[in-house]
Amino acid sequence: MSSDATFGDYGGQYVPEALMPAIDELTDAYERYVLDNEDGFMDEFRARLQDFGGRPTPIQRADQLSERYGCDVYLKREDLLHGGAHKLNNALGQVLLAKYMGKDRIIAETGAGQHGTATAMACAHLDMPCEIYMGRTDINRQRPNVFRMRINGAEVNPVDVGRGTLKEAITETFRDWAGTVEDTHYVVGSVVGPHPFPSMVRDFQAVISEEARAQFRDRTGGLPDTVVACAGGGSNTMGSFAAFIDDDGSDGDDRVDLHAVEAGGSSLQVDEEAGVAPNSATLSTGEEGVLHGARTKLLQDSDGQIMESHSVSAGLDYAGVGPELAQLVDEGRVTPANVDDDVALAAFHRLSATEGIIPALESAHALGYLEERIGVVEETEKGGAALGDSILVTVSGRGDKDLETVIEESADRDLDAAPDMDVFREGIR
Amino acid sequence: MTGDATTSGTSGSGDLDGSTLSNAFAEGPAFVPYLVAGDPDFESSKAYLEALDRGGADVIELGLPFSEPMAEGPTIQTAIARALEGGMTPDRYFELAESLDVEASLVCMTYYNLVYQYGTESGPRPFVERAAEAGIEGLVIPDLPAEEAEDLRAACDEFGLDLIFIVAPTTDGDRLDRMRELVSGYVYVQARLGTTGARSDVSDQTATILERVADWEVPRAVGFGISSGEHAERIVAGGADGIIVGSALIDVVAEGVETGRPVRETANQLESLASELTEGAAAGARKNRSEPEGQ
Ligand SMILES: Cc1ncc(COP(=O)(O)O)c(C=O)c1O
Question: From CA A3, how far away is CA B170, in angstroms rounded?
Fold first, then answer.
């Protein structure tokens, strides 16, 4: 197993012994059902993604943004997937796999609540009992998703440890699994965790770029110069990049640049004393270490204690990142970037007001990156944009879950496209 | 501590004859208490560990607190939070180990990231070197399965430390063989599935797992959930060479912190619980001698 369990020095299987037999069983199931399509697993998965999930999702030219940035900006509309985010691709795949494996209970962690929601929906759809672990801070800032999970029939277990965000929720879900591993499958929500999760979640999410690459070809006759996606753990990132990785400009082919945008939070400065990094810019600022079953880049202090991260977006608020993404950054194939809370909030309002699409705060980071890298382009400069002539941005999810946070966070900031909401603020909290 | 190692050598690539950890099991069943170093602060922690030693500890598993303790239940999680709050770091940890006035052998229990990050060169070597210097004789790393343990095994061999593995109720087949090859000192038999925490009953999974490691060359210490002398007796009577007790002792520390009890009183309570557990284990061994079970 050793060779494909790792990505260079990253990856691996750093989990308690009690879980190892289940991880081996899962690896075997991944190889048989996902890689070899045994019993037609992948055919059933694709059919359900279409009928239940609403795939394929479209790509759309964003006319106002294209005008603003002086180049063609296309959006991959994962916000239109059932549940409102890319998370269903993975959740449906894993819950179906658990069924094929004969497991009879599902557990999962969630940060923004999108993965929890997707898992709860997939479990209702496939008739599996489901329990979701969610940090207290995230429960308070993503309430609509908590309600959706409950209404789909899932138990939601609040996690009160630490800052009460994604890191604590993952740790707690591993603890549940350590006691229930014989009949329970843990649906890990991103390309993180021990092998086979990083590879398997990437394969389930790869549908994003498989579709997008073909759609872009059909539409324009070529490939985008740059693909941009936000990165928390990195599942929509790996899903958005997977089919473009070989478009690396070798053999005289076109090169597609891949940019992963993390949360710059309120600052890139780190407070070692307090153990706090007020950002989640793991790819740009993290150091190699071992967390949640994998060797990868982490936000940690010099002793190796994991830092508390921060982002206005719950789904990006994580001190680790997928091991394969860490390797692609080291190799120079993926460019790491980050934008701060302010830029993401401004981009949220800009897309909402000018394109009629309310993006998730996570996705708003990818959009904010265009503003930061290119800025407003004058008529005369057209075509000379910093990210090339054509850009594909993944809108990983829709922003309904974020409205309370956005209204709160926008009130004290000077954001150009933000409407005045003061009269409506009363009664939100 | 001074018994010879005739009853229990070590296996694997560990130092074959010189393991004092195995020796700690030679004179009857070993009592192996676990506490989190620095819980709730350096000085109290030192007093508690020395009390356990007086109560009969043969090996002390000294926890180096990590911020994401994936295998621990609420009791140890809270202890780890108290210790981190109290300023415990890897360097302070080694100072604490060096300052202890105890007969028992010391084993360090922590998570791999702290081992991996220690010192200037990356990889486990600097940590193991410093641990050896501090008098630590073995390591238990709950998030490091045999598959990932090669570098650490090599460093332990270089500096003469034992590397203890945890055998879980779910471990069997090839995985058992691989661990048997790598283990030295003793094997940690996890009595039940789940995370750490004191329980009021003894799991019947225990007998099954003990059977799986019955012919291993290293002594077998059982942990997870043991909380009383009576538990200890039953586990040893069931074939264990030693008992590992963590959460039940930490409950005493936690109560001391919550009620503001003087450190000396908590230490006395720990010492008497340690004596109860040591005596329970000895009673289990006597039972075994009078009615030897079909081995
Ligand atoms: C809409 C959306 N985008 C992105 C993310 C970040 O996760 P990942 O980096 O795994 O895509 C989340 C996580 O919850 C999300 O809800």
Answer: 25
**pLDDT tens digits along A295-352:** 999 999 999 999 999 999 999 999 999 999 999 999 999 999 999 999 999 999 999 9
Question: Ligand 1 mean position to A88 CA, how many Å?
Answer: 11
Closest CA to A91 of A41, A126, A141: A126
Nearest CA to ligand 1 atom 4: A362
Q: What is the pTM of this model?
A: 0.94
Tell me, yes or no, whether B78 lies in a domain.
yes
Selecting from A13, A180, A306 the residue whose C-beta is nearest the C-beta of B147 gives: A13
A59-84+206-425 has which fold?
Rossmann fold (3.40.50)
Distance of CA A170 to the CA centre of its chain: 15
Interface test with B, best of A13, A17, A174, A318 (most B CBs within 10 A): A17
| Location of each CATH 3.40.50.1100 domain in chain A | 20-52+87-202, 59-84+206-425
Task: Note whether A285 and B111 are within 8 A (CB).
Answer: no
Residue count (chain B): 295
- For B144-194, the pLDDT digits (tens) are 999 999 999 999 999 999 999 999 999 988 999 999 999 999 999 998 888
Give pLDDT tens digits for A60-104: 999 999 999 999 999 999 999 999 999 999 999 999 999 999 999
Q: Which CA distances in Å does B168 have to A193, A284, B65, B245?
A: 20, 38, 22, 16
CATH of domain A20-52+87-202: 3.40.50.1100
What contacts A61, CB < 8 A, 6 or more positions away? A72, A73, A74, A75, A219
Q: Which residues contact B107 (CB under 8 A, 6 or more apart)?
A: B21, B32, B59, B60, B61, B62, B136, B137, B138, B139, B140, B162, B164, B185
d(CA A50, CA A79): 15
Q: Which two structure tokens, joined as six digits, stand for A387?
A: 């990210």
Report residue A357 CA to chain centroid gap.
Answer: 19
Of B77, B112, B194, nearest to A178 by CB-CB distance is B194
Residue B53 lies in a domain: yes
Kind of pairing between the strands at A293-298 and A287-291: antiparallel
Residue B141 token pair? 């790393």
Q: Rounded to an integer, what distance in angstroms lies between the CA atom of residue B93 and that of residue B35?
A: 12
Measured in whole angstroms, how far is the alpha carbon of residue A40 from the centre of its chain? Answer: 27
State the Rg of chain B over Cα: 18
Backbone angles phi, psi at A342, to 5 degrees: -60, -45
